[in-house]
Design goal:
With 477 residues, the protein is α/β, with parallel strands linked by helices. It is built from 14 helices and 15 strands. The protein has a nine-stranded mixed β-sheet with strand order 14-13-12-11-7-10-9-8-15, sandwiched between helices. It has a six-stranded parallel β-sheet with strand order 3-2-1-4-5-6, with helices on both faces.
Length: 477
């Protein structure tokens, strides 16, 4: 294996503490972080090594509380202070990089830092043909800012060297969607508008903005969640089978879906979108309204909830609605994809309950990972009345192997140079092209978000969005 220098900018930040270093530690324990991998942790302000290790230790110990493993893992980490505006500090980084290693830069920093960071790395000889760079969402605030970020990255890195990470694509269940669709002949003939009534994709968060108020108030749910996570899930659920499971083939099919999305014009937003903002719930202890969260403006009109009715204008999906929903301070943390199949052409079992649903496939992403297929079977007793029964595939029970965290999987792909689960530049551009008119429409026609109580399932308008089509949201019991 080639030697690798993994350089983490923003090593003392929230993302690094909660996700990156715990994932790297677990990979080290499981022998997926080979000896040639050297981690260079970069902080902007000077920090003693002991203090740095102290802040990353608690989340690492959640994976495995073993001092021997921790000590061995910490020995792979070199701590450096680097301010991109200070030439001597960038020179120190260059001297730390091993000449024979593949240099990988993980930007766990705000996008506003990307341009000077890339410029400084390039000017001081820290980028070569084998280098890679990893960037987190959000990639911009709109199409124009995303293009500016892309130009700064491409000034030093080729497209094949840029890894745009979306941790949802690293989840085991998301990988299983592709396995379900393309590995089972029984499902492929049904996976189309002629057989499916509608789809729902929900990413609900029970927590509020926590310590991210300053960032979130400049972003909102549409930019923070829909433009990347939900649209990527939509692509996985609706793309055509790729010719091969290669990065270029898979990403080409996802791009085709984004290009086929029916535009939601500024005039459409009133009928096809809902934006909400949570209010304090008097029945919940210490409940806060969004506008009273730390770092949030008291007069903020930033949305913490979004619901959309989406349509794909292509041969497979024309005419079938797809409902997207995400929000903070929802009743519970729950992420799932619901495939609601159409009813049988003739209701033969007339004595069955009137609310009996047709077949439904429910793919749960979190908090647990499982897949359930709801079928109708005969109820016990005399007569032919039907009851729904779930065929339940609980993924944690299907194998004794430990299930990988999304960041673990994606970090291994980065180390191996596999781009399959990462977004290409055209995907980001196409997603913003679709999202920007919604933002413009909100500014013109829906400047104030609908209120909803913290701990609920969102604004009433979100239920009305589906009710107009005769549908309801699938909320977990």
């Amino acid at each position: 294996m080639q030697a690798i220098d993994l350089v983490v900018f923003g090593a003392s930040g929230d993302l690094s503490q909660r996700k990156l270093f715990p994932a790297l530690f677990q990979l080290f324990i499981d022998h997926h972080l080979a000896d040639p991998v050297h981690i260079i942790a970069i902080t902007r302000s000077k920090m003693p090594r002991k203090a740095f290790l102290k802040i990353i230790t608690p989340n690492c110990q959640l994976r495995q509380d073993c001092q021997t493993h921790l000590a061995e893992f910490f020995s792979k980490i070199t701590l450096l202070q680097v301010d991109v505006e200070q030439e001597d500090q960038l020179l120190q980084l260059r001297q730390t990089l091993r000449p024979d290693a593949c240099w990988i830069y993980y930007f766990a920093v705000p996008p506003s830092v990307y341009a000077p960071l890339v410029k400084g790395l390039a000017q001081h000889g820290c980028v070569n043909a084998a280098s890679r760079v990893v960037v987190e969402k959000p990639i911009g605030q709109d199409a124009h800012s995303a293009e500016v970020i892309q130009k700064s990255l491409s000034s030093a890195f080729d497209e094949a060297q840029i890894f745009r990470i979306d941790h949802y694509l690293g989840k085991e269940t998301v990988q299983n969607i592709m396995a379900l669709r393309f590995g089972n002949a029984i499902l492929e003939p049904l996976w189309r508008a002629e057989r499916i009534d509608y789809m729902q994709i929900t990413v609900a968060e029970a927590l509020g903005v926590e310590n991210r108020g300053d960032y979130y108030d400049r972003s909102g749910a549409l930019r923070d969640m829909v433009q990347n996570h939900l649209l990527q899930l939509l692509c996985i659920c609706t793309m055509e089978p790729p010719a091969q499971l290669t990065a270029y083939a898979v990403r080409d099919e996802k791009l085709k879906v984004l290009s086929a999305l029916r535009p939601i014009t500024p005039m459409d937003v009133v009928h096809k979108t809902v934006r909400g903002q949570y209010r304090a719930n008097p029945q919940q202890k210490n409940s806060l309204a969004y506008v009273t969260e730390a770092g949030v403006s008291l007069h903020s009109t930033t949305e913490t909830f979004v619901a959309l009715k989406v349509e794909i204008e292509n041969w497979r999906w024309a005419g079938m609605p797809i409902y997207l929903r995400t929000g903070k301070k929802m009743q519970r943390q729950h992420s799932e994809i619901v495939i609601q199949f159409k009813e049988v052409p003739h209701k033969l079992f007339r004595h069955s309950p009137s609310n009996l649903l047709s077949n439904r496939l429910v793919i749960t992403l979190q908090p647990e990972e499982k897949i359930r297929l709801f079928l109708n079977t005969k109820a016990p007793g005399r007569g032919m009345s039907l009851d729904p029964v779930a065929l339940n595939l609980d993924l944690k029970d299907t194998t004794k192997q430990r299930r990988w965290d999304a960041y673990e999987r994606l970090i291994v792909d980065i180390l191996q140079g596999d781009l399959t689960l990462f977004m290409r530049e055209k995907e980001v551009a196409e997603a913003w092209k679709w999202v920007d008119p919604i933002i413009q429409g909100w500014q013109q026609w829906m400047p104030t978000p609908e209120p909803y109580l913290a701990g609920s399932w969102g604004p009433v308008a979100a239920d009305q969005l589906l009710a107009r089509d005769g549908h309801i949201w699938h909320n977990p019991e």
